[in-house]
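Design job #97: recover the sequence.
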């Protein structure tokens, strides 16, 4: 089959109630997203420590941190490959089976980081192996999006879709906060020297915990009635991924999704990557001497980011995905510079409470529009190509959005170094977020409203 699946072919009706199976699907995907963020936060929030592990001691600390962030971006750029592969399989074989494969691959790749040699042992090979594992993590994470997002949304009743989308998407900052909290415990137990010498290995082994939870849930789960109906009616597409680009409606929706996700990558990672970078570099009084303070601020602000994501997802049930996003764009353009200035100046003054407040506001406001990601993308593609469309649409944001580290560094080195206070990057990070906010607004201006659509009928 190469045509779209309509309600005529897919006769199953969406459930109006939230069942036990719905709960299993939602919690399963929450922990999948949780693991993704948990793993990435282990890279981002201790980037200076990892720079000391995988680079020679002679390298400039800020340059080493930039290089770790670039490998982080390289990892992300492989997510579309995973989305294309596993999304196509998810549309042909079902969502559940693919999710078991992706969680095992994601956890295994992340956990193997604990076995890597350091620079003193293996030289440049240590950094090369680190980069290869990041690529593997990214590939399986792309598969998580492709199979997991439709899986959760197809099990969720329409009236709850925005809220549940926010809850699952909130698994990302929640996982980030959990990782930062665990890092704080490790720092308290082993100190910076212990973390740099050996405890970082134990830290990466903790990724196994959320992976086991997700795996158990997925083994208990059932594939969605919507997909099973598609399968029983023999409407499985022969080439579900390729059909995204063959059919005009899906092709248009994909282009909207790509621009939108590019904007969300730039805004979201402006918070996830640069709050800790601002706090860990001069003129912050905590630069180099108290990484635990930066981790604590980041941890608390991540919980508020979760609240912002769920709040926004819920609001779009009443006001619509498109209208809500367009109004948010105003805040996304106006607030990053004053908020990041407040974060930088508070850290420079050693004012913990004010720095915490600024980080909370950045997390809550900037992360809000990501709350509709699962719902909006799942509502934009038909059942027969939903895994492919959602996964590749989600991951396509990395084509331009994943290089946020390069953009910020370029702005810092060529335009804003004096404003950034030389060794910091607060203004450049804020400008990247503003650019992302504009892209979110442009994409939603051309998007159709999707809230309330029946996933079995599109």
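Job complete. Output follows.
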């Amino acid at each position: 089959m190469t045509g779209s699946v309509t309600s005529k072919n897919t006769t199953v009706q969406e459930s109006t109630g939230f069942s036990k199976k719905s709960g299993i699907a939602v919690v399963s995907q929450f922990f999948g997203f949780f693991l993704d963020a948990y793993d990435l936060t282990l890279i981002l929030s201790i980037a200076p420590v990892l720079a000391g592990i995988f680079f020679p001691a002679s390298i400039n600390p800020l340059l080493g941190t930039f290089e770790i962030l670039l490998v982080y971006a390289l990892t992300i750029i492989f997510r579309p490959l995973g989305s294309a592969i596993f999304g196509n399989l998810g549309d042909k074989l079902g969502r559940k089976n693919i999710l078991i494969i992706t969680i095992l691959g994601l956890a295994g790749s992340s956990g193997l980081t604990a076995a890597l040699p350091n620079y003193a042992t293996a030289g440049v090979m240590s950094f090369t192996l680190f980069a290869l594992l990041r690529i593997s993590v990214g590939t399986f994470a792309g598969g998580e999006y492709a199979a997991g997002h439709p899986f959760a949304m197809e099990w969720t009743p329409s009236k709850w879709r925005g809220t549940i989308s926010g809850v699952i998407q909130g698994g990302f900052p929640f996982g980030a906060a959990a990782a930062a909290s665990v890092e704080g415990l490790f720092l308290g137990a082993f100190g910076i020297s212990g973390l740099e010498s050996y405890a970082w290995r134990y830290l990466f082994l903790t990724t196994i915990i959320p992976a086991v939870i997700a795996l158990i849930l997925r083994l208990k789960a059932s594939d969605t009635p919507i997909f099973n109906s598609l399968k029983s009616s023999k409407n499985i597409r022969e080439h579900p991924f390729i059909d995204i680009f063959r059919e005009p409606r899906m092709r248009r929706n994909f282009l909207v999704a790509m621009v939108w996700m590019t904007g969300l990558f730039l805004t979201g990672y402006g918070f996830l990557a640069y709050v800790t970078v601002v706090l860990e570099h001069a003129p912050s009084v905590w630069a180099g001497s108290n990484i635990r303070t930066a981790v604590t601020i980041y941890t608390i602000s991540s919980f508020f980011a979760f609240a912002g994501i769920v709040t926004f997802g819920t609001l779009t049930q009443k006001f619509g995905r498109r209208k809500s996003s367009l109004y948010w764009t105003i805040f996304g353009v106006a607030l990053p510079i004053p908020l990041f200035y407040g974060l930088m100046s508070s850290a420079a003054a050693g004012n913990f409470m004010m720095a915490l407040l600024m980080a909370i506001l950045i997390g809550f406001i900037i992360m809000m529009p990501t709350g509709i990601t699962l719902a909006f993308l799942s509502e934009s593609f038909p059942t027969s190509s939903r895994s492919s469309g959602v996964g590749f649409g989600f991951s396509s944001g990395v084509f331009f959005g994943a290089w946020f580290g390069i953009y910020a560094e370029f702005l810092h080195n060529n335009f804003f170094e004096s404003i950034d206070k030389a060794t910091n990057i607060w203004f450049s990070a804020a400008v990247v977020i503003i650019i992302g906010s504009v892209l979110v607004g442009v994409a939603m201006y051309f998007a159709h409203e999707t809230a309330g659509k029946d996933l079995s009928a599109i």
